[in-house]
What we know:
The structure holds two protein chains of two kinds. Chain A is an all-alpha fold. Chain A has a domain at 9-108. Chain A has four helices and no strands. The N and C termini of chain A lie far apart (78 Å). Chain B is mostly helical. Chain B has one domain (19-108). Chain B is 82% helix and 0% strand. Chain B is built from four helices and no strands. The chains are: A mainly alpha, B mainly alpha. Chains A and B meet through helix 1, helix 2 and helix 3 of A and helix 2, helix 3 and helix 4 of B.
Amino acid sequence: MATMLALETSVQDVVDVTTAVVLLVGLFFMLIGAVSLHRLPDAYNRLHGASICVTLGLTCMLVAAAQELGSAAVVSKALITLVFSFVASPIGSHLLAKAAHHGGLEQWEKTLGDELAEDKTNPSMGCTDDSGIPRADDVPSAA
Amino acid sequence: MNLLLAAATSAVTHSSEGGWGRDILWTVVDIGIFVLGIGFVLCLVRLVKGPTLADRGIASDLLAMQVVGLAILLTIRLETLVYFDAVLIVAILGFASTAAFAQYIGRRRAVV
């Protein structure tokens, strides 16, 4: 170990340490996302905390993997995963929040406003009560 | 016995001639496995305890993200591409499960 710490620095060492730093940042945000499930008061607020996991945590970890291995296969797969998760994560959060709102989930009492509920009462907004989500009882019968 | 241990160690460390940077990186990877384990436990607690269905959906989505992170850590540690294919697949499965969960909540018209 003493000979290892004689610090014969090579390029690979610099790459490894940089990867370690990026990986630590990604792990930090992963942990933040998991902790936010317990620290935030509301399902709507928890969605915000969970998005951090994808946008910062997963991005940093994928960058670390691409940097450490460095082959074209890793970089291209990391890029594909990154693009997919950046498209899919907001869509999933939006779907969950919309379904929860239509399901009547109460907001935290200190939330400032509920604009979707206001828009539903305003017919000129074209936002009906059922916007998009089919009810269980009006599934079109085959007749 | 000593020989067996040495063989096992060299199999795990992949016999790569790393300098001190490699030691730091693998220490970080070992820490990361514990960090993601804590994340698993937190997500599972919210999945079991979550007062509404939306909380459970968020927790299961986040659980998929932790699995993706674990696959990335394994890729870095073992220096093989075998586990990196799981990254994209688990990400797609996580999105599909979130979408299905949202449909379930929306059709149920209740969040509890």
